Structures are given as structure tokens and as C-alpha cells.
Amino acid sequence: MTLSKIEPLLLEKLNQLQQQGIRKRDEKAITGILPPGNGYGPRYQLQGYGERAFLRMNSNSYLGLTRHPTVITAEMHAAEQYGVGPGAVRFISGTYAPHVELELRLAAFHGREAAMLFSAAYATMVGVLPQLISEQTLVISDALNHNCIINAIRLAHPAAKAIYAHCNMRDLDTVLNENRGRYRRVCVVSDGIFSMRGDHAPLDELTACCTRYENDYPEGVITVVDDSHGVGAFGNTGRGTEEVTASRADVLIATLGKAFGVNGGYVVANATTIAYLRETAPLYIYSNPITPAEASAALAALNVLESIEGTILLERLRHFSLKLRSGLQQFGLETLPGEHPIVPVFIRDTAKTTALVSHLFNRNILATGLNYPVVPQGDQEIRLQVSAEHTEMDIDYILNVLADFRYQ
Q1: In terms of CATH architecture, what is 69-305?
Q2: According to the 3-state scheme, what is the secondary structure of 39-56?
Q3: 52 to each of 20, 168, 229, 281, 370, how far by Cα in Å?
Q4: What's the pLDDT score for residue 17?
Q5: C-alpha dist (Å) from residue 151 to 144, 254, 289, 299
Q6: Helical H runs in 217-291?
């Protein structure tokens, strides 16, 4: 047996990705983190780049809890007590006290009856969504939903699927109206915060629209929202898109790997739904959970978020996010309004986007360029991500570097 016959096909695909400007190539390995100093936040060192120290503007650790002493200590103590891995899947012998406590706390945090942990948020969506979709279900999805939602729908094999224009509730209403009487169940699925743009779903309008058609489908209209970029980073208390829009999804999926700074994903819903998912979701049943130490670290992060310190971190995050947007607008750079720490800079050209990423890197800034087909043609952008670990001088620095590029 050999891979030699398909190797040319694999190389051809790699070349296509390179030509499209979306090949990721070698990953840059972080070798060290320099502490804050002289008015600047932490800096990151990369393998192969000597003593250069980089400002990180592409991290999901929105509150900086990845390096929080309390979170680190909690994980260390739990690792000493329970070991570094669970040793089994949950239903065999892989459930530890921190898993149970964390699920109870997450359910309470979101005002739900129950919660359920997964190894990652991607695994949560792929594990949960197909279990809520039958062969007589219509799935309706936002046009800019994350890849995990797209693949979860593919795995589910629904009776039909429909795409509504991004955050366009009139379009969603049309789809629901035109399909009355054709399907037993509808599942409407959306991101909370859209990861490429930092805008949020109008969840209050979405749920109101779905409620209007609830009685037109024998098994109802279910709303499923993935707010992985929202929870812990959006809203006055960090409860994400639901808090900002004063509304609630039937099933909410989120992550521990972004604002909480740890690892893993979870789903919250009513008790019956969670009990059903524990018996049916293969990525829960047949896959190891996060470690007991990670669960303990996530509990510590949740404690920080719900404390006065958490309120201060969220206010700091909003302040820097608004400062960055305001600066971009003053320089004539295109962005989107909002308070979320994902701040897009629309370049709308692949070559210029690639050039700007290089410009930033040459000036010791790590940022992510998003080109077609990762984003729609004409929406090419630099995605900047603000952290509560940043400082006023950090934001001023990146604005000055962007201004230099803008006026070249």
C-alpha cells in the first residue's frame, strides 16, 4: 500500500490553496511570553524569530484569563489531585467532581436547567445539532454561519435546508412562511457573534419570528445558537448575545476556549434535552471529556467573570474595542460598529489584505487576514481581536502602524 498515487492530487490541492491566498502553511510556534511593562501589555516570542517580541492581536482569550494566576493555580491543584487526563469517556469512569460542578455552574450562569460538557465547541455543535434534526426537519441557517454549523447540518441529513441572508429577519420570515405544512419540524441555527465580523445576530427578532410560526409545524420551531465568541466577552456581565438582545435560544452552545481561557465546549438547555443528548450525541458518548484539571480551571475562570474583577475586565475590553474602532474610522479605514472585541478592517482585496498582514508582522504585530473563499469575495479583511490584557499604548501602537500602511 502507498500514498504515491494520490500524492500529486494532494499537491495540486495545496497549490490551489496557495493561489487562492488561503494556505496557512507552517504554524508559528510561541516559545515565550514577556510580561507587561513600560505601559505595554504582554509580548509573544516565536520560534525562529530570535528576540523579536510581538503584540498579539489574533487571540480568542478576550479577558486574558489564560494566564490568570487563580485559573492556573486551580488547574495545577486539580492535576495533582486527579491526574492529567480523565482516563475514560464520561459514562464509563471519566466523570469527575469538577465536571459535575462545572455543568451545574454553567447551567446556572445561563439560567438553564442543565448543561453538558464536550471536548470542544466545534465538537459540541457537530455532536448536538444532528440529534435535534430528523428526516422530516427543515434546517434554516444564516448565510455567514461558522464552519461547525455547516458541517453539522451536512452530517444531519435533514429533509431540506435553507439559507437566509445574513441577519435578515425578513428573509427568515419568508422561508418560514413559504414552508408551512411541508415539514414537521424546523431548526433555525445561527451564530451569536459572527466570528469573521464581530457583529451579532438580532436574537430577539429571530426568536420572535420563530414564535410566530411555532404552531404551523407539528413539532415546532427550534432555535439553536452558537455564541462561542460572545459568552464571556459581550454584554455587561459577559452572558453574550442573549444578554445584549434580552432574549434566549432554545439551545445555546458556547466554548470554554475563548473568553474563559481554558479548553472545551458546552451546551445548555432544559433538563429533558440535555438528558436526551447525553444518550445520543456520539461526540459526547465516545470521546473523552476535557480533563478534570481543565474543568477546575474553567470553574475558576467563571468565578473571576462573575466577580468585581470580571466586571472591570469586561469594561476594559469594551473600552479598548471602542477605541480601536474609533481610531480606524478616523484614519478612513472601514470597519463595523459595535462593542465586541472582534474588530474587522475591510480591505476588500486579496493582494492588499496579504500585504497588510505582512506589514503588521514586520512591525511585530500578529494579526489574521481573511481572504476569499474563507469570506465572501469583496469582504476580504484583517480581523483584529482585542484583549483585556492590552493597554492604551498597545491600541495606539497598532493604530499608528495601520495609519502608516493606509497612507503609503
Answers
A1: 3-Layer(aba) Sandwich (3.40)
A2: CECCEEEECCCCCCCEEE
A3: 30, 45, 29, 45, 25
A4: 84
A5: 13, 17, 21, 30
A6: 240-245, 271-280, 282-285
Helix (H) or strand (E) holding 212: helix 203-212
Give the per-residue pLDDT at 306: 98
- Residue pair 202/167 in contact (Cβ under 8 Å)? The answer is yes
Regions of the chain where pLDDT drops below 50: 407
> In DSSP terms, which residues pair with 343 in a beta bridge?
384
CA–CA distance, 113 with 318 (Å, rounded to integer):
30
The pLDDT assigned to 406 comes to: 65
What residue spans define the domains of the chain? 69-305, 308-408
Catalytic sites, residue numbers? 195, 229, 258
Radius of gyration of the chain (CA): 22
Please say whether the beta carbons of 167 and 174 come within 8 A.
no
Residue 9 burial (CB count, 10 A): 9
Determine the Cα–Cα distance for residues 268 and 28; give it in Å rounded to an integer: 35
Note the CATH architecture for domain 308-408.
Alpha-Beta Complex (3.90)
What count of Cα atoms within 13 Å lies in the side-chain half-sphere of residue 244? 20
